[in-house]
Amino acid sequence: MIQVVELSKGYGTVAAVAGVSFTVPALGTLAVLGPSGSGKTTLLRLLAGLDLPDAGEIYLDGRLASRPGWALEPHRRGLGFLFQTPALWPHLTVAQNILFGLYKSPKKAAQERLEELLEQMSLTALARRYPYQISGGEARRVSLARTLAPRPRLLLLDEPLINLDPELKHHLLQLIKTTVTKSRGTLIYVTHDRQEAAAVVEDFLFLDRGRIVQRLEAV
Fold it and tell me: Which residues contact 188 (CB under 8 A, 6 or more apart)?
């Protein structure tokens, strides 16, 4: 379960997140929507522990994870975070980048999961290539595969399928949904596209200027 209590974060005179409170139950899925500059990415960074809040608290499964001046380290939150940009390691191949997310897994299990993801993402032919040798869309798929690889308990996705063609986007949405279900995880999905989000989430949170303007929950 994720519980956010009166969370705020500002940059100078700009309130990126202002007094936001919400709860996502265990195994829940939530889309965060809003215009550019509404605070969506800042909210994800706070949830991931990459930024410290100016006010408010974040609880993960009832455990305090963030408060002003302190945050539990990202690697101790049991989460996977996909940034808007792929952020691949340039000195590692496609396969090595995906395996990076499986460093805690036994070698055999990691190799089997790698081969599974390469096939599901249509990346098998690119396994030995380096990031500079693949397209932007291919790099985004590699980044998604790396994030999904360990089946994280908490999955934070920031515009994960932007600029991908509709057929591939549909396939990857189904893969995300399946991965979250199998891992019995919690998903927070940031996007501008409500129809895209509806394929994988049940609840919707709308932000504007750092504040919640609407919350829609599945009946």
Answer: 2, 24, 29, 30, 31, 32, 44, 47, 154, 155, 156, 157
